User: Fold these one by one.
Assistant:
Number 1:
Amino acid sequence: MRSVRDLHDEAMRIAVDAQRAHDAGNIELEQELATKAGKLEEQAATQLRADISEEPTRAILFCSAASLAWQSGDILWCKRLCYDGLRGFPPPEYEDDFNELLERATIADHLDIHNIELCPGEFQLSLTGAVAAAGIIPIAELTARISHLSSILMQRIRLCLGKPFTDLRKKISPTDDFITYAHAFRPGSFALTMGVTRPANKQPLIPMQGVDVDPSFVVDNVLYDMELLSNGSMSTLEERIGNNPYLVHFLAHAKEIAPDGKRIRMVGLTRNKKRVSFQLLRSEFKDIKSNYLDGSEANMETFVGLLTMADMDKGMLRLTTPNSSPLKIRVKEGLEDIARNYFGKNVKATGAFSGTIFVMSSIDPTDETDNV
């Protein structure tokens, strides 16, 4: 029988190769190598008894094996290894690691598509949290997210076509050549299918050179960017979208889609083998830094008050604060439709203030707490 040390050392060598495959974008090879490494690590772990004298070595090996199982994409195997590790006497920090992996595996179950065949350009939206269970959810939690996802998809089509950002204050339709839709409500956490399609009577559009506007491409493009945002990869996101109103629009609508951490803990987006667990909390968007959003703008301030329309055709709003005269607001391009959603409501607006004009770069309802 091979020793625990030999099995572990070989597993770690293969795990390094799996990470290299991941960095190179070779997901199939990564999962193959992670499976091989995980099996070796499991063999090493099972040679140790579930006895306190074998800790923390036993917990380390089972935790490593479970992480590799997760990397391989085998969710059930990952869960089993976590439970095997917890059957011993793991130190508190490893017990926390096992529980975190189990939580991720449970979320992944919500993201799985069971016995459902998605058409080209379709993806599954799933919502998990205290208010989403047994196929029932408050209408507001669902419809708002569908609307914001639809807006992201339609603007992404324009971006792929190389068109300038649509001035939303003029209420120009992003494009009449595509439509978004939703169907097939499913029980579970709460899930339904959304999609983008081109009506049969529409001719294919001419994209910018080297860019596809096939509905499947658009959906894959958006899901990839949602994953980048959830992982905090802002620099890559800026390179892909550009520092422009499209980026402002994407971040603003993604913020409206984001979970609050209590009512909704996770927004899942699934397409074929792509599973995005979007868990970046709405409250955490205040920490996102973007060259276009922040740039060299100084004197960033936050004001609270009632948002009303001044002259939307010119991108001007009015914020009536409790202790001062109404404040004139210029809406940053890309935020127009978000601002429109808050007309007549008390809000917290943040942006650059010159002393006369306030250029708004983010907006939140005042009843939202930072600690969710």
Number 2:
Amino acid sequence: MTIKVGNETVMCINIYEWVKNKTDLESSCFHFCNEGKRGYVNAALLKKMGFKAGASDYFFSRPNKVFTGLWIEVKDAGKKPTKQQREFMNRMLMDGYYATWFDNFDDVIKCIKEFYLIE
């Protein structure tokens, strides 16, 4: 699988670095590597292993006082989630998680801070 190193990838790296260096959330922060092109064989194998198209980029398993955890989809500036991504976020909301998306670093960090009451 080839990962495209573009703005979204750089933003994801920066988000994880911020989480790792500025919070105590690293052990509950997971990135789902849904980026990249896959051949038919790899796509079939990934699906058999539980791969979910549309799964958000980040999952924070630590709950807050209202939600079971936090899902965040990261998009390039000006881009919006796909239909599958929106459906995934809606399922997570129905399951008691907070699920949202952002197209810039500052809003992601603001969301994490507000969700976990980080100064």
